[in-house]
Amino acid sequence: LEAPRQAPALKNLTLEELIAGLQNGFRHEVLEGNVGYLRVDDIPGQEVMSKLRSFLAANVWRKLMGTSALVLDLRHCTGGHISGIPYVISYLHPGNTVLHVDTIYDRPSNTTTEIWTLPEVLGDNYGADKDVVVLTSGRTGGVAEDIAYILKQMRRAIVVGERTVGGALDLQKLRIGQSDFFLTVPVSRSLGPLGKGSQTWEGSGVLPCVGTPAEQALEKALAILTLRRALPGVIQRLQEALREYYTLVDRVPALLHHLANMDLSSVVSEEDLVTKLNTGLQAVSEDPRLLVQVVRSKETSSGPEDEAEDPPEMVSEVPEDEAARRALVDSVFQVSVLPGNVGYLRFDRFADASVLGVQ
User: A Gene Ontology biological process annotation (predicted)?
Assistant: First the structure.
């Protein structure tokens, strides 16, 4: 086995060399729909982040601040430096106060270090009203896992992709005796992001909010953001429909208030939205008939199973022939007497009043 290669000391690198190294691990652009995209393949440490703070603010963050949503791609990030965690979290932390996000135990020194967001960032924080999606894969490891987990626990980001590797925050290679063999040992561990005690991602990995193969994660994230971008319009149209059509008028104000104050941060699919709306609206109105449904046109249906059945046609004409009349009645009405002398009448279509008036 080869001996571990020694990275050049950061103090010996020029600013241009640091920027070049950073650009190899960072990629950013603005996608269709004004969605910011930031791919990070390596998390630099505090020393690099401090030296490149102005460069990052001017050339990365400033270009992403004007976007309506952000995708943070950590699918190819297999590690990084623990001291770089605050620099990533702080730009996405919407609060004005510092937040304790993790406590790290270091075995060689037998010490713990608390990780807090920065008191201030250069430039602006990413808006609290803007959605953030973190992409993960089965290769996402170490510091990248901690960042994904922290943002998920903060309810600041929707994690999309695969369960992460469940690795270690920091690894150290130790030479075995005087041989050319080395042992890789985890030397640091998270004691629980955001004060969650024994709950941690190490060993088990970070479970995504929306599971999907890593290669499809970006496409899935953009679909989720498209849905979430439409939510305000959906809520507004529901409010208008309730004002105009709902017959239990006295309950409308409470329903409108409920819709205006709904927490939709966890909605990532149409099914999520429908379930949340129906649960809330029926509880407020005490009316199980108040129902929200997703109606898809046949053009957008994926198959026969997705197509709703055509509603039965209303009977509006009565044939002149007596046998045809009896056949019509039998097709519309089912009449029988059940055990216990219980009458049973079933009809699946409504006839026109003129039809019902015919003897």
Answer: proteolysis
CA 202 → CA 13, 139, 143, 209, 271, distances in Å?
33, 14, 11, 17, 31
Express each pLDDT in 74-85 by its tens digit.
Answer: 999 988 889 999
What's the distance, Cα to Cα, between the start and end of the chain in Å? Answer: 98
**What is the rounded CA–CA span in Å between residue 29 and residue 54?**
19
CA within 13 Å, CB half, 160: 25
Short-list 40, 54, 43, CA closest to 123: 54
Distance CA 94, CA 89 (A): 10
Helical axes 270-285 vs 252-260, angle rounded to 10°: 140
Residue with tokens 């055509």: 310
Q: What is the pLDDT of residues 165-204, one digit of tens each?
A: 988 888 778 888 888 888 878 888 888 767 555 467 888 8
CATH number of 225-285: 3.30.750.44
Q: How do beta strands 131-136 and 69-73 pair?
A: parallel
CATH number of 10-213: 3.40.50.720, 3.40.50.150, 3.90.226.10, 3.90.1170.20?
A: 3.90.226.10
- Alpha carbons 106 and 120: distance in angstroms, whole number: 27
Q: How far is CA 60 from the centre of its chain?
A: 23
